[in-house]
Amino acid sequence: MGAGSENIFGIIIGLVLIVISALTHAGLKVVKPQEALVLTLFGNYTGTIKEPGFYFVNPFSVAVNPANHTRLGQSGDVSTKAPLSGMKSSNGNDVNIEIGKKQISLKVMTLSNSRQKINDCLGNPVEIGIAVTWRVVDTAKAVFNVDNYKEYLSLQCDSALRNIVRIYPYDVSPNVDTTGDGQADEGSLRGSSEIVANRIREEIQSRVEDAGLEILEARITYLAYAPEIAAVMLQRQQASAIIDARKMIVDGAVGIVEMALERLNEGELVELDEERKAAMVSNLLVVLCGNHDAQPIVNTGNLY
């Protein structure tokens, strides 16, 4: 009986030590720089550890990070892969499992969503893409106010982008108010990219404030007409450029003609009546505004 009692007592002591060791190991936490650990105990939020170091917490505390398995193709997608001991795939390689981190990154991260096709204020479809620089500033809000703060940010970026793009035309257009003051302005997606990007950043920030996120910067990474109208809009841009160039040529030609007439009158080199002046103006404008070099013709007859 004595030996049996000692064996039972030894087994009990061993089990107690194993339980104590397991609980101790469960309470050990490591927090790296620019990381945070959100802890809950029996469903209640107990606090957040933000300072780097080695900690011992309540072994029954649970670290919460609902976005640890979310992969959006951004700089904040961090995970580790650990091989399963003794398990091989059909081709003989180790079987790896992906382990998401329970720590929440406090680093500055960049989200680059896929390009979107959106109609501008004139109804023209444009393709646009943005890159958003962001970080977590309130870990409790990020964990408990939204289901998944990464997916939430991605959806709000898409929604805010659509709202802002619909206010602007692709190019400067007449009678378009982009500021909301009731007066037409020269705002456009192509010409006012800094203003548009800032408005997108402000729109996203107002939407993710409750999720504990801070939007540091938003930048337009891609902007173009949709393929179905790109060729037509290119012709329109070319026509507009030709018209602007013609206007500049005509303004310059008229100025040259005025200067020529003034110089002739000042120097009293020749007296021209109105009909001769009209003929001179016509000839000069034809020469100056023509697409091709002028072919000089000497008139040997009489003007009349």
Automatic annotation (TrEMBL):
InterPro entries: Band_7, Band_7/SPFH_dom_sf. Pfam families: Band_7. SUPFAM superfamilies: Band 7/SPFH domain. The keyword Transmembrane applies. The keyword Membrane applies. Coiled coil: none annotated. Residues 26-237 form the Band domain. The chain crosses the membrane at residues 7-28. Keywords: Membrane, Transmembrane, Transmembrane helix. PANTHER family: BAND 7 DOMAIN-CONTAINING PROTEIN, MEMBRANE PROTEIN-RELATED. This is SPFH domain / Band 7 family protein.
